[in-house]
Each structure stands twice: as C-alpha cells, then as structure tokens.
Amino acid sequence: MPTQERPAWKDELFQMHKATAAQVADGVCGVPNYHSPRDRVVAVEPDMCTTIAPNGRLKIHEAAVCPNGTRALIARWDQSGACKGKPAVLKEVTDDMIGTCIDFGSNSWSVYAFWCTGHLYASRSRIPTALPPVKANFPQNQKNPWTPVVWDGKEWKKKPTKSWVDSLPVCNGHNSPCLATGQRA
Predict the structure, then answer these.
(1) 117, 64, 132: which is closest to 93 by C-alpha?
(2) Which residues, at least 6 apart from 48, have a Cβ–Cβ distance to it below 8 Å?
(3) Measured between alpha carbons, how far is residue 37 from residues 32, 42, 114, 185 in Å?
(4) Average pLDDT by consecutive 10-residue portion of the chain (185 residues)?
(5) Rounded to an integer, what distance in angstroms lies between the CA atom of residue 185 and that of residue 181?
(6) Residue 169 CB partners (closer than 8 Å, separation 6+)
(7) By CB neighbour count within 10 A (0-12 exposed, 13-18 middle, 19+ buried), where does 70 fall?
(8) φ, ψ of residue 16 in degrees (nearest 5)
(9) What's the pLDDT at 92?
(10) pTM of the model
C-alpha cells in the first residue's frame, strides 16, 4: 500500500500550534523611580522584539515555546528599538525564573525577545491577556497577523507575509478553510 505524504499546509498548521507565546508581566514588579506597578500580562511571541524600560524587571508567567517544541531562550539588546547585532544577554529560561521578578533591563531603554530562530521582527503592539496567564497560540490574530520586518543594514523594512490561514485549501469556492466545514478540497 503506497504511503501518502502529509500536505505542506498540514505541516505548517501543526508547527503553528506547537509554537506558543510567552506570558510576561513587565510592570508588575515595578521599576524604581519610573512608574507604578501594573498587574498586566502580555503575550510575547517567539522571535518578537519587545521594548523594556530602563532597569526593567520581568515576571515570566510562561516561557515561549518554539515551533520545534523547545523552550525559547531569552535575549536582550542594550540599544533602543531594534533587535540587531549580537545580544548583550542570551540565556536559557529556567524553571527558577518562572513566576519570579527578574532584573532584565539595562540602564537605558532596551529590547528583549524570546529567541527561537534568530529571525527577529518588531512588534506593532503587544496583546494584553487576562490574569491568570493563559496559553496564547501563535499566531495571535488571524485577520491581522504580526508584520515581520527585516534589517537590510540601514533600516527595518516590512516583509510581506500571508496569514497561515491563507495557505489552507479553499472548499467549494468559499474562503473558509476545509477544516472549519469538514469538507474536502
């Protein structure tokens, strides 16, 4: 009996469900002389650059999971606004770091990311999530996916992408994926 290969769109869908965003609170621990603590958890997707205030502290409720199923590393760059060049800090997210306030900011505005592939992109905004933290599957919003950007040596440029839903087969001329209707392509 011949074996059939799994269609590429199913592999992509499977990989997307394995990757999950980190659940992080960057103000709940407080930043000395800067602002008052706020009890807000945000979803930070793998390989997404996120700004952190001077002397910022993070409380990681849940570490990011990479598409290959491994826990993402955490990286920090000391320049503001861009994850470029070699990170100043690149380390494993240990179980001891989960749920505790960790000093992670530098003396000035900096950026951090949960590092999976090293193909980093800037966030347009961060998505607040409810407390207690909930697992946020990647991508967060199918109608408005994150816009990856690439560094061309001079500036960040938007990289056109399609949502993973766009790659699913279309059923009977409808724009909805076959999985939603149970029909076959």
Answers:
(1) 64
(2) 113, 114, 120, 121, 122, 123, 146
(3) 10, 14, 23, 51
(4) 50 57 75 56 83 81 87 85 81 89 79 83 48 38 45 56 47 46 43
(5) 11
(6) 9, 177, 178, 185
(7) exposed
(8) -65, -35
(9) 92
(10) 0.55
CB of 111 closer than 8 Å to CB of 104:
no
Residue whose structure tokens are 């990989």: 15
Q: Where are the beta strands (DSSP E) in the chain?
A: 22-25, 41-44, 48-52, 57-62, 73-77, 89-91, 101-103, 110-115, 121-122, 127-129, 149-151, 156-158
Tokens of 58: 């993070």
Whole-Å CA distances, 180 to 5, 41, 144, 169: 22, 30, 19, 11
Query: pLDDT (tens digit, 9 = 90+) per residue, 83-122?
Result: 788 888 899 999 898 888 888 777 778 888 888 887 776 6
- Confirm if 42 and 127 have CB atoms less than 8 A apart: yes
Query: Torsion angle, CA of 98/23/13/173, rounded to 10 degrees?
Result: 170
Selection from 30, 94, 34, 39 nearest residue 57 by Cα: 30
